[in-house]
Amino acid sequence: MTQSxxxxxxxxxxxxxxxxxxxxxxxxxxxxxxxxxxxxxxxPECTNIIVPDxxxxxxxxxxxxxxxxxxxxxxxxQELSSWICVGSLLLKVSGxxxxxxxxxxxxxxxxxxxxxxKIHMFDVDIPDGQTYKExxxxxxxxxxxxxVLPWGKLGHGICYDMRFPKLFLGLAERGASFxxxxxxxxxxxxxxxxxxLLRARAIETGCFxxxxxxxxxxxxxxxxxxxxxxxAPWGEVLADGKxxxxxVSATIDPxxxxxxxxxxxxxxxxxxxxx
Length: 275
What we know:
There is one protein chain. This protein is an alpha/beta fold. The protein has one domain (5-269): 4-Layer Sandwich (Nitrilase/N-carbamoyl-D-aminoacid amidohydrolase), CATH 3.60.110.10. The chain has 7 helices and 16 strands. It has helices spanning 18-36, 54-60, 68-80, 165-173, 187-205, 255-263, 266-269, and strands at residues 5-11, 40-42, 83-91, 100-106, 112-117, 123-125, 131-133, 146-149, 152-155, 176-180, 208-211, 215-217, 223-225, 229-231, 237-240, 246-252. The strands form 4 sheets. The chain has a 6-stranded mixed beta sheet. Strands 8-9-10-11-14-15 form a 6-stranded mixed beta sheet, covered by helices on one side. The chain has a two-stranded antiparallel ribbon with strand order 6-7. The radius of gyration is 18 Å and the shape is globular.
């Protein structure tokens, strides 16, 4: 049986200054590693920058090769001999008009071993008066991604993806024991749905869910919900980051995935339904 490990999720309050954001992220991961010895870290969506204004965002973001956060976190993974999932970076891509919202998995040698582009675009008019249209800024991904960790398979997702169970069920059916949902969730939707959605994704798949989150108030008054979560396969919340910058951690026992799926074998009991 695969041995247990410690996972830490970082809760950030990112600004419009990519270099300062990289420093904040590295500082918190170092602190979490020093205090817990974690071997696997997850940062939130938009780890490098949050700027609501699309034109200004385009002026400030860089390519993958020049991103301060990715450069710093690759070096840090090697320094700490740990895995780091960069929840997402907002980036320019050569030859593309739109930006990408891209997740990176970095191994303990400091190498990027997998990338995932957010599939579901958050095009929503929220009742509190805010409007989001991610499809106007970002090119949506089209490919589900699974990575192999020393402790099992990892299924990739970002924020709004969590509202689409088909993606997470598909990842679990293809062997994922751990699911990612790093986010920059709105306060309005977070208060209503955050905990419920993440617990549901864990329960229906029998997977651990890692949901590092942005929190607080950002540039131009944008606010995010926080409450970074680590959820167990039976649906228990193992850690909750509440509303402050920092980190949470938990001991992850992969055997709990098998236990949860044996208790209620919903994955194996699924049938094709005709409508």
